[in-house]
Write a structure and sequence with these properties.
Strand content: under 5%
Radius of gyration: 29 Å
Distance between the termini: 69 Å
CATH superfamily of the largest domain: NADH:ubiquinone/plastoquinone oxidoreductase, chain 3
CATH topology of the largest domain: Methane Monooxygenase Hydroxylase, Chain G, domain 1
Number of helices: 5
Length: 137
């Protein structure tokens, strides 16, 4: 794109805005290509795939076990509690990686902050252990 020199400031702003909008073209192109690929794959598989259905193939199947009963059975709250605790402690561990990489730059202040963070993490862990949140019955 050739630089255009305009004496009027209003026209210069319009030219700059047009070039800024053109910078988003690669993102739009990638989005169109990604959506196009997904749509073409789905349509192509419906035309190219085998169309053999039978009573045995149309049955519900999961993990090699026959389905018995209602699929809307309630799960134990313990399952969700363990899953949330796992995510919580896992995310807290992720915060340690940037600290370990920047340990020298952060100095003693960073060490103290991570000490407080680890202390709170251990207190939370012992609280969960005391409440028997991770015990599977």
């Amino acid at each position: 794109m050739k630089p255009i020199f305009v004496s009027n400031i209003f026209f210069a702003k319009i030219i700059i805005m047009q070039s800024d909008q053109f910078d988003y073209f690669p993102i739009l192109m990638q989005l169109v290509l990604a959506v196009g690929f997904v749509v073409a794959t789905i349509i192509g598989s419906s035309f190219l795939g085998p169309k053999r259905s039978s009573k045995n193939k149309d049955k519900n199947f999961e993990c090699g076990i026959e389905s018995v009963g209602n699929a809307r059975m309630p799960f134990s709250v313990k399952y969700f509690l363990v899953a949330i605790l796992f995510v919580l402690f896992d995310v807290e561990v992720i915060f340690m990686y940037p600290w370990a990489v920047n340990f020298r730059e952060m100095g003693f202040e960073g060490l103290m902050k991570m000490g407080i963070f680890m202390f709170l993490l251990v207190v939370g862990f012992f609280y969960v252990m005391k409440k028997k949140g991770l015990e599977w019955e």
